[in-house]
C-alpha cells in the first residue's frame, strides 16, 4: 500500500483499507465456529432401526414401559411400536433366548425366560436369605385374593397379628392402602402394580385358582371383624 504526502504535515497519509481488508461483520460466523459448532455427530448419524431403538429403551428401563411412552419418545405411532414389541417377543421365543419380552403391569419389560429361571434364582439367592418371610408370603396371599381387606380380617385368617407384616409389605411396595371400610372405618389394603410386575401378571384375574387346601382363606368372607 503506497502513502501520499500530507500537504499540512509533510508526512505520509495512509490510504483507507480496501474493501477486502475490512474487519469481519458481527453477524458473519467465525470460520472456526463453523467447523466446531456445527451439528453434532448424533445428528449426522443414521437413525437406528425401530426394533433396535425399542430394545435399547427397554434395556435401561427399571419399570415396565407403556407402549405410548415408547412411541412418544421415538416419535412414531403407538401401533407401530406395539407391532415391533410383539415381533420381538416372538423372535426371542423362537431363538430360545435366555430372556423374554412380556407385557406385564401396564407396560413391556425384559424378564428371565421360564426355562432359565431356576438357575437365575439360584444365582440371585446364593448366600442370601429369602426376601419375604413365610408370614409375609401368607399375608400377601390373603391380600391378593381377598382385596381390599383390613388388617383385622387378615389377622383372623392367619390367627396372628398382621400389623408388622403389613408394614413390611407396604414398605416393599407390594401392598398399599385402599381407603377405609364404610362400616368399621378400618384401613383396607390391596396389592400394587409393583406386585403384578413381580408376579409376572397383567391383571389380578390372572392369579392362579386358590388352592382348596389352604385353610381359612377360602372362607375369609364369612369372618367378621375390623
UniProtKB/TrEMBL annotation:
Regions annotated as coiled coil: none
GO terms (BP aspect): cell division; chromosome separation
Gene3D superfamilies: Winged helix-like DNA-binding domain superfamily/Winged helix DNA-binding domain
Lineage top rank: taxon: Bacteria
InterPro entries associated with the record: ScpB_csome_segregation, WH-like_DNA-bd_sf, WH_DNA-bd_sf
Keywords: Cell cycle, Cell division, Chromosome partition, Cytoplasm
Renumbered residue ranges of the record's region Disordered: 1-49
Keyword Cell cycle: yes
Compositional bias (Acidic residues): 18-31
Protein name according to UniProt: Chromosome segregation and condensation protein, ScpB
Amino acid at each position: 500500500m503506497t502513502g501520499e504526502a500530507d500537504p499540512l504535515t509533510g508526512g505520509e497519509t495512509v490510504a483507507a483499507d480496501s474493501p477486502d481488508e475490512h474487519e469481519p461483520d458481527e453477524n458473519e460466523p467465525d470460520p472456526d465456529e463453523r467447523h466446531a459448532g456445527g451439528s453434532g455427530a448424533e445428528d449426522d448419524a443414521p437413525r437406528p432401526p425401530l426394533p433396535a431403538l425399542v430394545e435399547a429403551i427397554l434395556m435401561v428401563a427399571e419399570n415396565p414401559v407403556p407402549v405410548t411412552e415408547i412411541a412418544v419418545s421415538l416419535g412414531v405411532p403407538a401401533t407401530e411400536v406395539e407391532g415391533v414389541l410383539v415381533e420381538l417377543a416372538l423372535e426371542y421365543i423362537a431363538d430360545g433366548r435366555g430372556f423374554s419380552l412380556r407385557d406385564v403391569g401396564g407396560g413391556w419389560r425384559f424378564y428371565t425366560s421360564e426355562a432359565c429361571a431356576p438357575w437365575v434364582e439360584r444365582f440371585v439367592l446364593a448366600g442370601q436369605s429369602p426376601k419375604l418371610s413365610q408370614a409375609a408370603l401368607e399375608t400377601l396371599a390373603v391380600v391378593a385374593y381377598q382385596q381390599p381387606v383390613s388388617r383385622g380380617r387378615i389377622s383372623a385368617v392367619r390367627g396372628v397379628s398382621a400389623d408388622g407384616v403389613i408394614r413390611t409389605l407396604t414398605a416393599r411396595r407390594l401392598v398399599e392402602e385402599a381407603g377405609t371400610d364404610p362400616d368399621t372405618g378400618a384401613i383396607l389394603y390391596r396389592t400394587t402394580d409393583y406386585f403384578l410386575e413381580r408376579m409376572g401378571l397383567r391383571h389380578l384375574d390372572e392369579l392362579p385358582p386358590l388352592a382348596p387346601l389352604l385353610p381359612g382363606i377360602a372362607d375369609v368372607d364369612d369372618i367378621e371383624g375390623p
